[in-house]
Please model this.
Amino acid sequence: MTDKATLYKSLMEAASAARQYAYSPYSGYRVGAALLGKSGKVYTGCNVENAGYSPTNCAERTAVFKAVSEGEREFFAIAVTGGARDSVDSACTPCGVCRQVLAEFCDPATPVILGTPDHLRVLTLGELLPFAFTSGNL
Ligand code: THU
Model:
């Protein structure tokens, strides 16, 4: 039985490893994400930038789209790491588009783990995106 702290740290380590693949020649800002599916499988992602700028895909969405495209639609948690400086206060938080994409597949209680493997900050998706617009609104 893995305790939560160990699980969150290992998910953050996977996000950190994924960050090395960031393709960010325009911003120089490198982000990694790791999404834990209810099957137990971890889907990683990095940001993938584009010369046209707007086609850029964030690390979180890369991870979600990889998972959903492989048949996984329910998730326990996501870890996200990145930032200009190595401090938890400047750590990357999911952008608004990524929060909305996460809200499509994750309930508001889903832990969103930020920071670095040595300094985690755990929030919930509901804290990051209160009053989310979801299928229930339609
Ligand atoms: N970025 C992410 O990968 N995730 C976020 O939630 C925030 C921003 C990326 C997009 C772009 O490649 C770079 O960080 C700077 O915005």
